[in-house]
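hey can u run this one w/ adenosine-5'-triphosphate bound, need the C-alpha cells asap thx
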Amino acid sequence: MTAAAYPNTWRPPAFFGSRRRQRLVITGFVLYFVWSIFDLNVDVERVLAGLSRALDIFARMVPPDFARWELLLTGMAESLQMALAATLAGVLLSVPLGLAAARNLAPRPLYLAARGFIVLGRTLHEIIIAIFFVKLFGFGPVAGLLTLAFASGIFLGKMLAEDIENTRLGPVEAVRATGAGFGQTVVYSIVPQVLARTVGVIIYRLDANVRHSTVIGIVGAGGIGQTLSASFSRYDYDFSLAILLCIIALVALGEWFSDWVRRKLR
Amino acid sequence: MEGLEAESRRATAVGPRPLLTVEALTKVYPGGQRALDDVTLAVERPEVVAIIGSSGAGKSTLIRCINRLVEPTAGHIRLGELDLVGLSRRELRRARRRIGMIFQEFNLVERLTVMENVLSGRLGSVGFFASLVRRFPPQDITGAYGLLDRVGLAGYQDTRADALSGGQRQRVGIARALMQNPDLLLVDEPTASLDPKTARQIMRLIRELATERHRPALVNIHDVALAQAFSDRVIGLKSGQVVFDGPPTALTPAVLTDIYGEEDWSQTIRRSDDDEAPP
Ligand SMILES: Nc1ncnc2c1ncn2[C@@H]1O[C@H](COP(=O)(O)OP(=O)(O)OP(=O)(O)O)[C@@H](O)[C@H]1O
Ligand SMILES: [Mg+2]
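ok here u go:
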C-alpha cells in the first residue's frame, strides 16, 4: 500500500459550513460584543466611583451589628418557614400537575392544558410573581409563601411529568393487565420508578426555596429579605452585614442538608 | 395456596371453565397496517396453544387484543359468555382479572420486591388504599408464598426485582400472572430474552402450571422446536391471517414454508426421538 495516495493533514469539519464562513461568524460575534459594551456607555469613571463607594459602604458595615438579634431571628425564622411551607404546598400542587402534564398518562387535552400552564408559569420569574402577589395580598410573608408555593409547584410538576414520561412502559402495561385501576397502576408501576429521583428533586427545591425566600423579601414579600431591604434603605449598613452573614449561613446550611439527604437516597 | 386450590375444585365441580372464542378479529393500526385480518379461532379445552409466525405476522397484536391492551378494530372476543369487545372501563378491569399475562421483557417493577410484584397480580381484587399501604388479604399472602415456592423462588420474597437473573424474573412474572387465578393465560414470547436451557425450563413451568390448573394458555413463540415440545396445538399466523391450526405433529416442512416462507426446515422440526416429551 502506498502512503502517498492519502492526504497527510486533517482538520475537524467546520461548524458553520465552510472554514471561511466560520471565521466570518466568529469575527462578527466578537465585534458585536465589543460594540455592545460601548453602546451601553459603560463609563469607566462611574465604575471607579462605584468602587470607591463600595469601599466606603463596606467600611461602615464592619463590624456587623448583632444588637437587634431578635429582629434578625424573626426574619430568618419567617424565611425558613416560608421555604418549608412553600415546598410542602408545591409538592401537593405538583402531583396532580405532573400527572396531567405527562404525555403517556393524561388524555391529550388535559396534557396540553397542563403543559401550557407550566410554560406560562415558568416564564414568570419568582420576583415578578412576588411583586404581583404583594399587590394582591399586601406586604408580608403570605405573599412570599404563595409565590414560592406557586413557583415550586410548577417546577416540581414539570420535573415529575418528565420523569413519568421516561418510565418504562412495560411494567405499567403489566400492572394494567392484571385489572388494576388507574390509581393502583400509578402506585404500583409509576411511583416506584420515579420516587427516588422525585424525592431528590424536592429536597433540591427546598434548598432553592431557602435561597429564594431570602430574595423575594426585597419586593416586600416578607422574611429576612424584607429586613435586609429595610436596613439598606435606612443606611443601617452594619445591621445589613449581620443579616447577610446570617443569610449565607442559612443558605449554606440548606445546601449541606440537601446534599446530605440526596447522598442518603442514592 | 389452599384458597386457590379450593377455588379450582369449586370450578371443576360447577363444570368446565368458560373458554375463549375469537371471531372475525381484525386490527388495523392508525398507521394503516392490517396486523390482524379476520382471525377466527376457538379454545375449547384447557390446552397450551402455541402461536407461531414470522416477525410482524401479528402474534403480539392477537394476544394483546384479547386483554385489550390493544383495541380491536372489528370482531368479537368471548371469554365464556362475556364479549370482551365493547366492555366499559370498569367491566374491562373486571374481565382483565380473569386473564393473566406473561411478557417477554418480564415487565417487573424493578424497584419493588419480589413479593410486591407477585401481589400486584391481586390489584384488581384489592381496594386502592389497601394496596397503597400493602395490606393484602392473608389468603393472598399465603397464595403468594405458595406460588413463589412453586416457581422455584422460595425465600426470595424480599429481594428487589432488579437483583434477579432473567430466568428468575420470568418466574416472578409467571407467579404474578397466576396470582390472579386466571381463567386464561396470555404469554408473549416468554423465552426470547433467555438462554436455551432456561427457555426450556420456563416453557415447561408454564405448561405444567396450565395443566395443573386446567387453564388454557396462548403462547406466542418464535422457537418452532420449543413450540412443538411444549404445546398441544399450534396456530400459524401469516400477515394477520390464520394459515395453520393443528397438532404439533402436523408441522411439516410444507406447513412451515407456508407460515414462514421458503427455507430448509429439516433441522428445525423436532424428531420423535427428541428428549423431553411434554409431561
Ligand atoms: N403500536 C403499533 N402501531 C402501529 N403498528 C403496529 C403497532 N404494533 C404493531 N404494529 C404493526 O402490526 C404488525 C404486527 O405486529 P406484531 O407486533 O403483532 O407482530 P409479531 O408477530 O408479534 O412480531 P414479532 O415476532 O416481531 O414480535 C406489524 O406490521 C407491526 O409493524
Ligand atoms: Mg411480538
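Chain A is about 80% helix and 0% strand. anyway lmk if its weird
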